[in-house]
Design goal:
Chain A: It is a multi-pass membrane protein. The complex is a heterodimer. Chain A is mainly β. Helices cover about 5% and strands about 55% of the residues of chain A. Chain B is of the alpha+beta class. Classes of the chains: A mainly beta, B alpha+beta. At the A-B interface, β1, β3, β19 and β21 of A face β2 and β17 of B.
């Protein structure tokens, strides 16, 4: 029976795939505890942001709500290749949260809404670190709103579709190290939105085994309201670096293709597996198109990223300890989309091995408390800057990255 | 897991629940600076560059950023108790330097000379090649009793290393061979020669760098071939012989060190931006015409001739090109654009023409080849560039040529342009503190390769962009 799913394997073979990148982890306390393996998991309505196909199964006559907060700390250390100087990123918390609501509107149709913060990062290096002229601080926050419809095709099969409206804010600043003034800086801030689509299927092949497959399209955030500002420029170069200017940019958020199975091994133990292929290759380069201002002509600041599509493998387990308490555990391996040649301190990532744990406590039939924690440990990355390519700002050295993600939330039924 | 640290912090979460996370930066092993050879007593031998000359002058601040001082600072990480002494000037004294006045949109920055201040006395030499020259006697260095470890002397030429009295105050007279920067390194009234000083200092040293010989050729280049000894085979053989005399002392007993080849002059901003046809094209586009650039015949006998791509107009003359100047044509005085009219050619002193440059290049190459030969065959020094089996530090390949094509170091671009390039200082040939850091890094990298050491490089971006 299980061999049936082997057809999925060729999908991924031959890909030098790598999900990682700047996703902020599973969007829900319960799925975080499960390591994110939720494509075929109906234990939490948080699954609908990953697989809208779950909605037909999840939706019932009750209005179900799940909401909570997520905090992620992603931190890297750096050692300069030639200078031997160690720099640690400053501690920042990438705030996130989720809100889900589902309800069946007929026997076959259920509707849902999800609000999530699936992508983002906050990189903050000390002001005077070695790579300050490459980047000092960079921040991306995204908000996804996804109204979803789920349809029960028959007792065992469900399909769902959701429309994604995404909003994102991006900012970065770096020192202009060619000047003596330590406050000489260039800052860029912008925001924008884009649309996407999320479709999925969920099926059961018996009481114990379920599968899910879903695809969420990439979203291109069009940011047309960018503001570029500079400070600390000496008078002689005032014309080269105007104090303020406008810029536009696009930010491509990746598509995801997820395949998962959930297997109830015993009455109390459920195990889930997920493969996710994330289409990071749309993140080709970050182009800031700065408009002409004052005496300075328009120009384009390009940071090549050349991300690769990335594969993540996730395993989760849910164990019913008692009538009220469920324990969660997960293990995952996320390959990084960032190639060696394009490691840049604006966003550091590595192939990561992650473990997670969590619990759900059913306080009453209508209220459950959920909490989870995940820790990811990244491989050592070594960046080699080519000094001769003057357009590319980078710094040579090695990076080690860890992430801590924690989430708490509640699941309610009315 | 070493990567956890248990400093708990606390933050109110999105849902007003408190999140408790343990987070600290992941650990990495930091390399330890190491060296197998003894670098505890480092001796730097050289001229203008080595002394820490910057923006047309030597000041106390520019001495602090001399490349030997920067190297010494890095060596100290691997060699406990290593110290480095420099003949520091008193603040405010020296031969004067340039300050930046402004940088107009025409691309030619303007400088102002801050006059030097002597401490003991001033000797004016009215017969100096490029107009009256002022020699200032400065306060004697605090290191005069023992000789400093930085023996870089501005204006020191190889042909004078055995001149007795080069550093004796009594020789400070117009037209005499005298170097006030050498004088202040020695006890009063000493007739020691530079070679003797190197001999004495080398005996107390464990490691050396040698970057000497540029000052033999610089005056000729900077004056458009008007001043300094004419580069010829006599000068070339004298430089080679005298360099060997110094190096014999420095390498005595197999003392480890780095010998630097001289960089070629065409990468220095004094020449680089005035390369014949490129300059002519820039001027034609600036003035929207197709006038040629004319230069005087180098020998002064023949006709005015159009500039070729092997002639270089000195950077100091560039702002004047195209400005109308009065010229006597026949019996009438006309205002003609300087250098852009066949009747008003660029003066010989403003141009290092192809014959002059080739003379310089012949001497430079012959000298550099001798340094290669000495390092490899005579002193059997370890190889720095394996591909070429070269035991000398080739500054052109490793530093000056890359900078001329512009390099990006941790997000900061360095070019050969003074002011914005942050490498060369306002005098068009000496280095800024950051330029000195890159030069020091070239030496450190060569040292690491040759002696299999791990000496960290300097973060040049953290140094000032000028020593003034």
């Amino acid at each position: 029976m299980r061999l049936r799913f082997l057809f999925l394997l060729p999908l991924f073979s031959g890909l030098t795939a790598t999900a990682g990148g700047f996703d902020t982890g599973p969007q829900g306390a319960r799925v975080l505890g499960l390591g994110g393996a939720s494509t075929a998991y109906i234990g939490s309505i948080a699954g609908i942001s990953v697989n809208p196909g779950l909605l037909g199964q999840l939706g019932d006559s009750l209005l179900r709500v799940s909401m909570g907060g997520i905090g992620q700390v992603r931190r890297s250390s750096f050692i300069g290749q030639d200078t031997y100087q160690r720099t640690d990123q400053e501690l920042t918390i990438q705030p996130g949260g989720y809100f889900y609501a589902t309800r069946a509107v007929s026997k076959r149709v259920a509707v849902g809404l999800s609000l999530t913060t699936p992508y983002g990062y906050h990189t903050k290096w000390p002001e005077t670190w070695e790579g300050r002229s490459v980047i000092q601080e960079s921040q991306l926050n995204t908000f996804f709103v996804q109204p979803t419809v789920g349809i029960k095709l028959n007792d065992n099969f469900n399909a769902g579709v959701g429309v994604v409206y995404a909003f994102g804010k991006y900012s970065q600043r770096r020192a202009l190290g060619q000047y003596d003034d330590p406050t000489a800086q260039a800052k860029f801030t912008s925001s924008g939105s884009g649309l996407g689509l999320n479709v999925g299927l969920y099926g059961r092949t018996g009481d114990n085994l379920a599968f899910g497959i879903s695809y969420r399209s990439g979203v291109k955030l069009k940011m047309n309201n960018g503001k570029a500002t500079t400070t600390g420029i000496p008078d002689r170069d005032g014309a080269l670096y105007p104090r303020t200017g406008d810029f536009t940019t696009d930010f491509s958020l990746p598509s995801t293709l997820s395949v998962g199975i959930a297997d109830r091994i015993t009455k109390n133990l459920l195990v889930t597996f997920d493969f996710t292929l994330t289409g990071w290759s749309t993140q080709d380069s970050l182009k800031l198109n700065v408009a002409a201002s004052g005496g300075a002509p328009d120009r384009r600041i390009t940071t090549a990223r050349r991300y690769e599509d990335a594969l993540a493998f996730r395993v989760g387990a849910e164990y019913q300890i008692g009538a009220k308490l469920t324990a969660l555990a997960g293990l995952r391996y996320d390959e990084t989309p960032i190639r060696d040649e394009y490691i840049n301190p604006e966003f550091i990532d590595a192939n990561r091995l992650g473990v997670s744990t969590g619990f759900s406590y059913q306080v009453s039939p209508r209220l459950a408390l959920e909490a989870a924690y995940a820790f990811d440990y990244g491989q050592l990355r070594t960046a080699r800057a080519n000094q001769q390519i003057e357009q590319v700002a980078n710094v040579s050295g090695s990076y080690r990255t860890v992430t801590h993600t924690a989430s708490v939330g509640v699941a309610l039924a009315f | 897991m070493k990567n956890f640290c248990l400093t708990p912090w606390h933050r109110a979460g999105f849902v007003a629940a408190a999140l408790l996370l343990n987070a600290c930066a992941p650990n990495q092993d930091t390399p330890t600076p190491t060296t197998r050879v003894d670098v505890s007593r480092y001796l730097a031998v050289g001229d203008t560059y080595t002394a820490g000359f910057s923006a047309g002058g030597l000041t106390r601040v520019s001495q602090e950023y001399s490349y030997p001082n920067l190297i010494a600072r890095q060596l100290q990480g691997a060699s406990n108790g290593a110290a480095f002494s420099q003949p520091l000037l008193e603040a405010g004294t020296g031969a004067g330097y340039f300050n930046l006045v402004d940088f107009p949109a025409d691309g030619f920055f303007r400088t102002r000379r801050v006059e030097g201040r002597e401490v003991r006395s001033t000797v004016i030499n009215p017969m100096a090649c490029s107009g009256a020259d002022t020699v200032r006697l400065l306060a004697r260095s605090a290191t005069a009793g023992t000789l400093p470890q930085n023996l870089g002397v501005p204006g020191l030429v190889l042909s004078q290393i055995e001149v007795s009295g080069l550093g004796n105050e009594t020789m400070a007279a117009p037209g005499a061979t005298f170097n006030p920067y050498f004088e202040r390194l020695l006890p009063a009234g000493s007739d020691q020669t530079y070679l003797q000083a190197v001999t004495t200092a080398a005996a107390a040293s464990t490691f050396f760098t040698f970057f000497l010989g540029l000052d033999d050729l610089l005056p000729y280049v900077r004056s458009g071939g008007q001043c300094g000894p004419v580069p010829n085979s006599t000068l070339s053989s004298q430089m080679r012989q005298n360099a060997k005399k110094i190096l014999d002392q420095l390498t005595a007993g197999g003392r480890p060190g780095i010998i630097a080849r001289l960089p070629s002059f065409a990468t220095l901003p004094i020449l680089r931006s005035g390369k014949g046809l490129g300059l002519q094209a820039r001027l034609q586009s600036k003035f929207s015409d197709d006038a040629l650039v004319y230069i005087e015949d180098p020998i002064g006998l023949g006709n005015t001739q159009p500039i070729t791509d092997d002639d270089y107009v000195l950077a100091t003359a560039l702002p004047r090109i195209g400005q109308p100047t009065a010229v006597l044509v026949g019996a009438t005085t006309l205002m003609l654009p300087y250098g852009r009219d066949i009747r008003n050619p660029l003066r010989d002193a403003d141009v290092l023409d192809k014959d002059e440059l080739s003379r310089v290049s012949v001497v430079l190459n012959s000298y550099n080849n001798e340094l290669d030969r000495l390092a490899t065959d005579v002193y059997k020094m370890p190889v720095i560039t394996p591909a070429k089996k070269q035991s000398t530090l080739d500054l052109d390949v490793l530093l000056f040529n890359p900078v001329a094509g512009s390099v990006s170091l941790a997000g900061v671009v360095y070019t050969a342009e003074p002011v914005r390039g942050n490498f060369f200082s306002l005098d068009y040939y000496s280095l800024t503190p950051r330029g000195n850091a890159l030069l020091a890094n070239a030496f450190i990298s060569a040292f690491n390769k040759a002696y299999r050491a791990n000496i960290p490089a300097i973060d040049a971006n953290s140094l000032p962009t000028s020593a003034q």
